[in-house]
Amino acid sequence: MKYNNELKKAFQVSIPVMMGYSVLGFAFGLLLVSFEYSWYLAPLMSLFIYAGALQFVAISFFNVKAGMIDIAIASWFINIRQSFYGLSLLKRFKDTGKFKTYLIFGLTDETYALLTTIKDDESLNKRWYYFFLTALNQSYWFIGSTLGAIIGSNIKFNTVGLEFSLTALFVVLCIEQYKNLRNFVPFLIGTIASVFSLIFIPSDKMLIVSIMIALVLMFTFKNRVGNE
Fold first, then answer.
1. How far is CA 37 from CA 27, 31, 46, 56, 153, in A?
2. Would you say the pTM of this structure is higher than 0.85?
3. pLDDT class for 173, splitting at 50, 70, 90?
4. Separation of alpha carbons 173 and 143, rounded Å
C-alpha cells in the first residue's frame, strides 16, 4: 500500500481514542435500542451525524418529539465549541485537497486533541495521515455503536456509568497535552473558566460561556500561554 506508513502512524496515535470511542459508542448503541428504536439507526447516525454527545442528546429529542427549531438551537449550542478550535486548523488543512470537506466533518474533540498533541512527522504525507486519523476515529465510534445496538437489541444491559469512558479519555489526552507543552498556564485558564461557569452559569449555557472566558483569558495572557 502506497500510504502504509501514514496509516500505521495514524493507527498508533489513535489507540487511546479507539479505547474510548469503542466503549462509548457501544454505550450509545445500547442506550438507543433500550428506548426501543431500531438498531440500524445507530450506524446511520454514527456515519452521517458523528457527533458524540449530540447523538446521546438526540435520543432525548426523539423521546420528547422536539421540533426542528428546538433541535437546531440545542445542536448549535452543544457543538459551537468546534467553531472555535476548528479555526486553529484552517492553516493545517489548507493543502488537504479533496479530503478537506471530510476532515472538517470528522473533526471531533478527540481528533483535535491528537492533531494538536502529536508532533507531525515530516516524512509523512500530511493529507493522507490526517485522513486516516480522522477515518479511523470515526470507524471506532461506528463499530462500537453498531455492535452496541445489535447486542443490545438481543440482550438487556445496565448502561449506567458507561458514559464516563469519554471523561476518562479526556483526562488521558489532557495529560498528553501537558507532557507535550510543559506549560501549566493553558490548563490553569481552562480550570478557572470551567469552575467559574460551573458555579455561576446555568448548566445549559455553561459550556459556551466557559469557552468564551477561556478564549478571553488566553488572548489576555497570550505571552504566557505561548511560552513552553
1. 14, 9, 15, 13, 9
2. no
3. low
4. 22
Distances (CA, A) of 203 to 36, 60, 78, 200, 209: 28, 17, 11, 9, 10
User: At 68, which amino acid appears?
Assistant: M
Task: Compute CA distances 215 → 4, 40, 193, 204, 224, whole Å.
Answer: 38, 40, 9, 19, 14
Residue 143's pLDDT is 97
CA 91 vs CA 96, 129, 222: distances in Å: 10, 16, 19
**Residue that the C-alpha cell 456515519 belongs to:** 47
Report which secondary-structure segment, H or E, holds 87.
helix 81-87
Q: Which amino acid is at 28?
A: F
What residue has cell string 483535535?
112
Alpha carbon distance 202, 62 (integer Å): 24
26, 161 contact by CB (below 8 A): no
Taking the C-alpha atoms of residue 112 and residue 135, their distance in angstroms, rounded to an integer, is: 13
What is d(CA 149, CA 34) in angstroms, rounded to the nearest whole number? 9
Please say whether the beta carbons of 77 and 207 come within 8 A: yes
Q: Residues for the chain: how many in total?
A: 228
